From TrEMBL:
Assigned keywords, A-Z: Glycoprotein, Glycosyltransferase, Golgi apparatus, Membrane, Signal-anchor, Transferase, Transmembrane, Transmembrane helix
Cytoplasm in keyword set: no
Transmembrane segment boundaries: none
Gene Ontology CC annotation, any one: Golgi membrane
MF term (GO), any: sialyltransferase activity
Organism whose genome encodes this protein: Theobroma cacao
Protein name, entry field: Glycosyltransferase family 29 (Sialyltransferase) family protein isoform 2
Amino acid sequence: MRILQLGLLVALFSGVAAILIYITGLSNRYENHQLSGEDWEALQSLQSGFQKCVSANGLGLQAISGKDYCQVTLTYPSDTDSKWRDPNTGEVEGLSFEFNLCEAVATWEQVRNSTTILTREFIDALPNGWEEYAWRRINKGVLLNHCKNKALCMEKLSLVLPETPPYVPRQFARCAVIGNSGDLLKTRFGKEIDSYDVVIRENGAPIENYTEYVGKKSSFRLLNRGSAKALDKVVELDETRQEVLIIKTTIHDIMSQMIREIPIRNPVYLMLGASFGSAAKGTGLKALEFALSVCDSVDMYGFTVDPGYKEWTRYFSESRKGHTPLHGRAYYQMMECLGPSGEVAAKS
């Protein structure tokens, strides 16, 4: 486990405890590093501030201290009715989930200071970037023999691979990331969402007929593989036809064909992101990751799931099966409560 030397200030923001985290560097492994009294105090403040935030905003969640100041367990009330079952094991989803705050902050800082769009510059800078990495971003890339024919790989990536990053860290001021939770229908956030400098949406979430709840402005849209294969339908979701489309997986020949032949004039890119762990690979998390890279402050709408929900609800369709709603809700709570004051906040 890697440890951060942290300078931390606990402050109040809109009456809610928030945390300001200043990262001054990474140390060696925890057990081999001599932490000063100031370091220990900073780590203790990190955990204490986090626990207060979860208690105030977690809809019943509590953050319990772990074996050190980095480890916490987010726990739901014991009477929570967990209904989601793992389709492979049949086991009911648990009510407690362990997180490492220090590793989360380290990954966060990495995202805050880097680009999250795949570029040719990035591939060229990697040792054997074309042979060892580029083919992984192409559907059925394993058949390309590690891009021995570099020209062929370049051709397949050409429509989604800019030479240099099209966006820089913290390029935009205020950003809203819109999830798909059915809870969005409980509050009319439309006008508020449209007031942001940038609005980021996910997959095939519609705007038409829901503008009073989710707004009509849309700057970026993060896409999983299924949505990306329907690019022709996705571009119709934004009436301005100016959304930037960011695919989190691979480029597919079907996508390239649509871009060329329809044609699709929206910018289309591939996501280049950090790893937030096996429990956090969803499109919503990647949308937040992208926002953290290009925005000064990020507000989250539609990322809630109340204790007892069987699965994530959607504001535009039936509930989506196959998720872990309680784990996901706990993860997003961790992100909100680790957010420096004003940088990340959940609105619904």
